[in-house]
Design brief:
The chain has helices spanning 33-45, 59-72, 82-87, 108-119, 133-146, 156-162; strands at 4-9, 12-17, 20-26, 101-102, 153-154, 187-189, 192-194, 197-200, 206-208, 213-220, 226-233, 236-246, 253-254, 259-263, 273-280, 283-285. With 292 residues, it is α+β, with helices and mostly antiparallel strands. A hairpin with a 5-residue loop joins strand 10 (213-220) and strand 11.
Length: 292
């Protein structure tokens, strides 16, 4: 399929694929990545969008809009305007920035904030438009890092910072922690956000420290399973998850290449692999940008 282009015209953004117009979105409806993500969340809840919630208004999103409109008895114009938003129910409103967002709320704006938090390195779980307890923790973490009032409310100051650039680099270079080819990478995945790189490898494959550091955590951590976290200084930590065994104790300080543990499939893992994360001052970044 041909490349997607955006053409601004009379307050609309029209998506063109090859030679055919396939969708359009009103400028006040779904033109920012956060709004596109909220639209994808709503369409996914109706079983019509099956791609990743990535904030990109591509052909899959366009097709899902049109399919929803046909199902809802609306004019099939591919425009995510007021009638389509209303038909989406509570997931179609209210617009982002129309109210402060906090725990217990649900709606379009909640899904948009979930996406922005994940993009900033503080995912709150699946993108679903519902602000549960994980949402509160992610929001507080972002606010603390961004230097805005850590009150658990996404108001104008927090939204303004979320709209800015995310952390993308590490001040400390690291090494790949395992002799294996990478699999799933960092970024949107289905209805969530993958905060690291997966390295598929046989169970028991050695896992090494990506840099010199001290162990701040070694043990069981819910979906991560058996997890080791190393602190490298300058706010940088590396995370080694789904291990079958742990070779270090909390407080131990090691050199680059020291044995951390062995590949496993503990926690929420569907097969043996190392899930490797890098965080800078609490924000998850793409590990590839830290690996030398």
């Amino acid at each position: 399929m041909g490349a997607v282009a955006r053409i601004a015209c009379a307050g609309l953004i029209v998506l063109v694929v090859a030679t055919g117009v396939v969708a359009a979105a009103r400028a006040d409806a779904a033109t920012t990545p956060a709004d596109v993500a909220a639209l994808q969340v709503a369409l996914r809840a109706h079983g019509l969008y099956v791609g990743a919630v990535d904030g990109i208004a591509g052909p899959g999103t366009a097709a899902a809009i049109r399919a929803f409109q046909a199902r809802a008895g609306l004019a099939v114009d591919g425009i995510a305007g007021p009638a389509t938003r209303a038909a989406l129910g509570w997931r179609g409103a209210p617009p982002l920035s129309s109210r402060p967002v906090t725990t217990g709320m649900r709606g379009w704006d909640v899904a948009a904030v979930q996406f922005l938090l994940a993009r900033a390195g503080f995912p709150s779980g699946p993108f679903d438009g519902e602000a549960g307890p994980h949402f509160a923790a992610a929001l507080l973490g972002f606010q603390a890092r961004a230097g805005v009032g850590a009150d658990g409310v996404a108001g104008p100051a927090t939204l303004g910072r979320l709209a800015g650039p995310a952390t993308t680099t590490s001040p400390i270079p690291l090494r790949q922690p395992i002799a294996a080819a990478p699999g799933d990478g960092f970024g949107p995945r289905a209805a969530g956000f993958h905060t690291g790189i997966d390295f598929p490898a046989p169970e028991g494959t050695p896992v090494a420290a990506a840099g010199p550091g001290c162990v701040t955590f070694a043990g069981w951590n819910d979906g991560y399973g058996m997890l080791v976290v190393l602190s490298h200084g300058a706010g940088v930590t590396s995370w080694y998850a789904h291990l079958s065994r742990i070779a270090l104790r909390p407080g131990a300080c090691v050199a680059t290449g020291a044995l951390v543990g062995a590949v496993g499939a503990t926690g929420h893992a569907t097969g043996p692999h190392l899930h490797f994360e890098v965080r800078v001052r609490g924000a998850a970044i793409d590990p590839r940008l830290a690996l030398g």
